[in-house]
Amino acid sequence: MLFSHNEYTNRLQRTKERMEEAGVDVLLLTNPSNINYLSGYDGWTFYVDQMLLVFSDEKQPVWVGRLMDAKAAKLTTWLDDDNIIPYGDKYIHSSVRHPMEFVGDVLTQFGYGTKRIGLEMESYYFSALCYEKLRNRLPDATFLDASLLVNWVRLIKSDLEIEYMKTAGKIVEKGMTSAIDAIQSGARQCDAAGSIYQSLISGTKEFGGDYPAIVPLIPTGEGTSTPHLTWTDRSFKHGEMTIIEIAGCYNRYHSPLARTVSLGKPDPRMEYVSNVVVEGINAALDIVKPGIYVEEIEAAWRNVISRHGIEKESRIGYAMGLSYPPDWGEHTVSIREGDKTVLQPNMTFHMIPGIWLDDSGVELSESFRVTNEGCEVLADFPRELVVKEDGYIDPWNQYA
Amino acid sequence: MLFSHNEYTNRLQRTKERMEEAGVDVLLLTNPSNINYLSGYDGWTFYVDQMLLVFSDEKQPVWVGRLMDAKAAKLTTWLDDDNIIPYGDKYIHSSVRHPMEFVGDVLTQFGYGTKRIGLEMESYYFSALCYEKLRNRLPDATFLDASLLVNWVRLIKSDLEIEYMKTAGKIVEKGMTSAIDAIQSGARQCDAAGSIYQSLISGTKEFGGDYPAIVPLIPTGEGTSTPHLTWTDRSFKHGEMTIIEIAGCYNRYHSPLARTVSLGKPDPRMEYVSNVVVEGINAALDIVKPGIYVEEIEAAWRNVISRHGIEKESRIGYAMGLSYPPDWGEHTVSIREGDKTVLQPNMTFHMIPGIWLDDSGVELSESFRVTNEGCEVLADFPRELVVKEDGYIDPWNQYA
Fold first, then answer.
1. Sign of CA dihedral B71, B160, B207, B155
2. CDD domains from the entry (chains A, B) (predicted)?
């Protein structure tokens, strides 16, 4: 197990307290991060229906999933074997049966078929059809939306969680170094992506990497005017910019980091924007400390950029930590105007105030934790636009 | 664009025909594979709400998504800019607004707010909450489940799609070779995973790799008794088996492949099981041809294994091709008893009849397309248990 039995039962206790506040008798978790957080479960099995059932009056949660994956639950969770309840393959991608019928029957067997059932209505892995099938199976139950209940429990990290995130920070330093090395005029984007992956997954000598919840995002050229493009097998070009947004991941805990590379002398406008972004990040990190509102971080950033005539429509960051694809954000706190969350030590965020203009963009980011007096960034990497005066020779052409 | 304008409009036409059959006036697509299939859209943006709206009486679909991602739609789709309709960041992870309210208003503007609306009720990226919010916004609409409508349109591939999948087959041959090279006693699992990633993403000299919809699955030792474990930073051990399930991916088209490696002489029981699996796959591939039922493939397999005293509870394969995380399966056809789909040329499947026993397991698989007379596997890789008599020296210890 990656955490002590005590840490898991403590998490479970805090979850049950929130369930009681929300009037939830049983909580049905499908978000793989929440399942992992409470049980330790880890496997690429969330593409079929699976759940962790947290009963208000049972000591352990119950894992429900596909038969072939039950052994994964036995190997990776702290649950007793009796609390691992598999369904047969006949439920998979069937037009006549649905796994939620099975789940409904399990709830009935545990005496919860007519109780108040908390659902993650906004989870990637609880579809609209799951909701309909479950309601049909349990017509006398009361359903409540408990989408972010466990996400909020996860907001403040334990010391060991912070340690994992700092390790992820070491891994992302290595990944970013590989990225900057690999991005050269004439090099294929896919080769750079391959190199980034090898760094992030292999990890450091002491700590192996895990798969990040988002693939490397490396938009280049005009593609930098939007943040979420991946790569092609075309080549990087001299005179163009490339954004790199990646994360180190260790035991499913993330440390994201973004930088921007210019191959050759950057456009003066984008150099100016980069400097403003760095100044804005510095100002925003400077005011972070326990007791302030999250929105104050964004205000400090906005104060800097508006002085330089730059506007930004979107939020500049979000809470993050433990995660599975497709997102490493926790979907709770956003660093933006109106977010009145009060900062506390060991909250962790990714601050990524990207600026995307019509035909080009810049991203620099920092992941940080709130400390007792201020904050601490998770990765140590120069906070600046990377300018490479490259003289790359295409090895394929060279030896062809 | 990766396909001709003609191919996209042809796909759209076939989709509209099925919409008419199903009585759907407008189809709301959230499955990223279906969005890509009809529009060309490609980006890691499906972790926020986005949709492709297919109107029965409009020439082009409409993309709706986050403002910062609108440029990605302009760069990757064949749609006119007017058909790209972004919503603001205030809708993201908000407790007071929801993107489906915006989508509802777009439908009303197009005159479809009271029509028959087809939903992908079983998509990963259309949550139960999306469904509720949309119903509340459009109380006079009629909602229909159209979950797999486009998935079924995708079942038979075009010649260019087959070409992409064969290219993915070349990439997975390279990835599997790297995997087998990297899996050695004393080597860390994460280093093998890093090496596999580099091969799959870098691709071949001619064709760069794309990210597969599932990460490399490399359960080892007792972990081979379940299929969907990833990796740790512990080392492979002499005398243990490791399963490798990976896919090459090219332009989002997949070619999955599984093999099993034994480090040192295999347990005779598992060697026996491997031989039976190979014999079963051979028998199953042998009977594939247009005109037969899909379930006949499974029957041919089962006939072989039952003769050897082996049973398998789960399906042995599924339709696949174009995909995004978290699954490369198409969720339409399953190779199992009862599936009466009639095979036709250019249907494509991953046949993966894994056998997982109490403490160990074996997987070998083949991806194949149905041809005019029979079938053709997409990757050329020896179909056998890989036995390595390894003499690996840990480089960290060697140079420490």
1. positive
2. APP_MetAP
